[in-house]
C-alpha cells in the first residue's frame, strides 16, 4: 500500500482530502480548483461512490462537475472486489485526469478496493500526474495509514483510534475529517503518538487540503486545516499507557490554517496567505 | 490586577488551578498536595465559596481538608463587595497558609472581589508565600486575564471567548478548565491569539497545575494538562478576521502532560515524569 514510484521526469498528481460537508454547488472553490487542475473543460473526471450506501452519492458530485463545465464524467461504482478487477472499469479509471471518492464509510473503501488492481492503478495514475480527491470517508482512505474509527475528545488516549491500511497515495500525512465539527483532535494526536513519523492534518467541513506534487499543502474552502507536526516530538508516554488511559505528548507543533495558507510537509513550515 | 511584588528574600506561594470535578475525598492527590504545601497538620486553610450559589460548596471542601488532618479551616464567604472590606474577614484571610476558591461562576468572583481590599490582600499574601488554589471558576479567576465565557469547539474564531480582568496572581498563563470535558481548545487558542504573550493551560477535570514559585508547573490528578505555548507564534490572522470567522494560527507548540510531568513557563520546556 505504498505510493507508486513517480517516473524520472514525471510529477505526481495532487492529493486532495476534503473534510466532508462541502457545498455541492458550482460556487464551491474546492471542486472548482480540482477541475482546473484536472484540465478544465477538457477534464476527464471519474467519481467512485463505493463508500456510500446511497445510490445518488455519485450523481450529486457529477452534477456539480457538470455545472463547472466538465462534460466527460464517469461514475465508476466499484461495489465489489470482483468489479475492482473488471477490465472495462479499470480502463475508465485509467483514462481519467481526475478521480473523486465520495463520502460514506472508509472501511467500505478499504475492504472493497484494498489490494485490488483498481487500487494499484489509482496509485500508479496518481504517481503519473492524475489528481485524486476524496471527501469525508474518501479523504480518510487516500493516505497510507487510515483512521478507520475512533472516539471524540480533545485529549489523546491509548486505544481511542483504530488505524487500518488505506489506499496509500501518500504516507506523509494522517488525515482526519469533519475535524472541528466532530471534536477529533484527540484521536488524530493518538494516531501520531503511535508513531510520530507522519504529520496529522485535520480537515474541517467544506475545506480541502490540496497536497501538491512537491508535498506543499494549500488550503481551500471556508473552514480550517489543523496541522499537527510531530517532527520535533520530545516525549510520548504511549508505550507505558494502558488502554483508555490519557497519553503525555511533549513538543507537538500546531498550526490552524485557512484558505490560501500553505504548509510544506518536508520543511514543516507554514506560510500565511499571499506569502 | 498585576501580581504583588515578592520581597527580596521571599518566595511566592504556589498557584494551583484545578480543572473542576476533582474527587471530594481524602484520596484526592490534589488537595493532599495542597495541604502538604500549606503546612500539613499545621496548615491554616481558608475556603472562599463566593463563586457558588450553593450554600454547601465551602463545607464539602472543608470536610476533605478535615479528613486530611487539617483542624484550622475557615470558610470566608465574601458574598458582597462590602464584606470584602470587612476587617474581621480580612484578618482571617491574612492568617491563612492556604486559600481555596470553590467553583461556580467566575464572574461572581470578579464582580464581587475584584478591586477590593480582599483581592489586594490575597495577591500580597501569595507574593509572600501563601498558596492559592481554585477549582473550575475559581481556577479561571486566579490569573490576570480571565476567561469569563466562550463557545466550545476546536478551531479558534474571533469573538469566541470573552476575557475579563481576573484576580491577577500571575500573568504568565491563561487558564481554562473542564478542558477536555467541554471541548475548549478553540477558545483557549483564541485567548492566546489576541495577544500571544501568555501561555495557555487547559486543565482537565480532577487535574491540577501546581505552578511553583519558580514558574515551573507540576501536574497532579487523573486527567491531562494541555499546554499551548505561543512564544514562537509565527503568524495569526486575528487582526483581519471578522467576528465569528476562524483565525489562522501558525507555530503554536502543544504539550499534553499527565501527573508528574512538569513544564517550565520561562524556558518553555516540558519534562516527563521522573526527569
Protein architecture, described:
2 copies of one chain form a homodimer. Chain A contains 7 helices and 16 strands. The model of chain A has no long low-confidence stretch (mean pLDDT 92). With 275 residues, chain A is of the alpha/beta class. In chain A, the strands form 3 sheets. In chain A, strands 3-2-4-5-1-10-11-15-16 form a 9-stranded mixed sheet, with helices on both faces. In chain A, strands 8-9-12-14-13 form a 5-stranded mixed sheet. In chain A, strand 15 (262-264) and strand 16 form a beta hairpin. The first copy, chain A, has a single domain (15-271), classed as Class I glutamine amidotransferase (GATase) domain (Rossmann fold). The A-B interface holds A 153-156, 179-180, 183-186, 189, 202, 204, 223-224, 226, 228, 234-235, 237, 246-258, 261, 270, 272-273 and B 153-156, 179-180, 183-186, 189, 202, 204, 223-224, 226, 228, 234-235, 237, 246-258, 261, 270, 272-273. Strand 14 (249-257) of chain A pairs antiparallel with strand 14 of chain B, so a sheet runs across the interface.
Amino acid at each position: 500500500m505504498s505510493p507508486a514510484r513517480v517516473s524520472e521526469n514525471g510529477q505526481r498528481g495532487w492529493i486532495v482530502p476534503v473534510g466532508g460537508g462541502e457545498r455541492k454547488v458550482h460556487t464551491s472553490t474546492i471542486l472548482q480548483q480540482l477541475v482546473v487542475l484536472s484540465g478544465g473543460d477538457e477534464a476527464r473526471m471519474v467519481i467512485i461512490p463505493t463508500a456510500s450506501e446511497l445510490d445518488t452519492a455519485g450523481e450529486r458530485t457529477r452534477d456539480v462537475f457538470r455545472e463547472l463545465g466538465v462534460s466527460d464524467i464517469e461514475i465508476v461504482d466499484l461495489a465489489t472486489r470482483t468489479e475492482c478487477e473488471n477490465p472495462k472499469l479499470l480502463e475508465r479509471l485509467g483514462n481519467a485526469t481526475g478521480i473523486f471518492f465520495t463520502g460514506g464509510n472508509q472501511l467500505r473503501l478499504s475492504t472493497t478496493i484494498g489490494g485490488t488492481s483498481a487500487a494499484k492503478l489509482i496509485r500508479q495514475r496518481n504517481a503519473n500526474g492524475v489528481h485524486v480527491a476524496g471527501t469525508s470517508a474518501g479523504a480518510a482512505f487516500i493516505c497510507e495509514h487510515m483512521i478507520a474509527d475512533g472516539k471524540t475528545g480533545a485529549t489523546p488516549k491509548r486505544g481511542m483510534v483504530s488505524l487500518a491500511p488505506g489506499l496509500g497515495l501518500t504516507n506523509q500525512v494522517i488525515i482526519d475529517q469533519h475535524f472541528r465539527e466532530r471534536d477529533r483532535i484527540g484521536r488524530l494526536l493518538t494516531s501520531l503518538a503511535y508513531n510520530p513519523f507522519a504529520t496529522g492534518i485535520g480537515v474541517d467541513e467544506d475545506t480541502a487540503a490540496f497536497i501538491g506534487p512537491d508535498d506543499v499543502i494549500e488550503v481551500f474552502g471556508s473552514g480550517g486545516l489543523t496541522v499537527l507536526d510531530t517532527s520535533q516530538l520530545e516525549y510520548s508516554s504511549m508505550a507505558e499507557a494502558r488502554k483508555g488511559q490519557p497519553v503525555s505528548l511533549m513538543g507537538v507543533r500546531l498550526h490552524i490554517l485557512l484558505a490560501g495558507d500553505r504548509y510544506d510537509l518536508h520543511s514543516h513550515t507554514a506560510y500565511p496567505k499571499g506569502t
